[in-house]
Amino acid sequence: MEAYVNTEYRNSNDLFSYDDLQRLQLLLEIKPYVLTRSQYLYNIFLKRLLDIIIASLAIILLLPVFIVISFIIAFESGLPIFFRQQRVGRGGTLFNICKFRTMFVNAPKNVSTFEMRNSESYITKVGKVLRRTSLDELPQLLNVLQGKMSLIGPRPLIPKEKDMDYLRKYNGIYQLRPGITGLAQIRGRDLMEIDQKIHLDCEYLRGLSFKTDLKIFFQTFLVVFRKDDVAF
């Protein structure tokens, strides 16, 4: 039996409560997947080393882009340049994710775009371009250097996403650092239902390897350049 809970979720009214999920775990008595020795060593050493090297080089090479985007944001809508928000990281610990700010400063805090009413009215002109090209994600390279994120991995949750958070804990997903991009980003992203997302999280966890990460890394560029429906 698969470790993830393959339940159909259609809207917020259909979600299990946190207590329901806890009781479901006790009934199923399914243990979360644990990384193999080779996967663990790759995750701790080689994957982390590659994250540091690639993120460092990317920041150096993209520094002019960082500066130009910062000036444009400040000119259009003032300060701050960056948007910070609490997310759930490795081991279930919280950290502050960093992005280029794409909304006006009066936009609702700690709410995903998909939960907002009239979200388009809060997005700045440059913000629309940054989101469409995924350039708003570039500051997360700093999160990678800090060790809070990886280049490749499941996207970090907002703490209030209790149902998804519980399913990730339940399936052992928090053995991994969250990523800037991952399987969900190359296969349909935030348009997916929760059961589909946790399925992809589990697929990535079980298949963790250098080959898998390399494949996701290059496919992400193809998706962005094709301007497919990718939302981080």
TrEMBL record:
Key words, A-Z: Membrane, Transferase, Transmembrane, Transmembrane helix
Keyword Transmembrane helix: yes
Record bears the keyword Transmembrane: yes
Transmembrane segments: 52-75
Segments forming domain Bacterial sugar transferase: 47-225
Pfam families the record matches: Bac_transf
GO molecular function terms attached to this record: phosphotransferase activity, for other substituted phosphate groups
Superkingdom classification of source: Bacteria
Stated family: Belongs to the bacterial sugar transferase family.
Name this protein carries in UniProt: Sugar transferase
Organism: Mageeibacillus indolicus
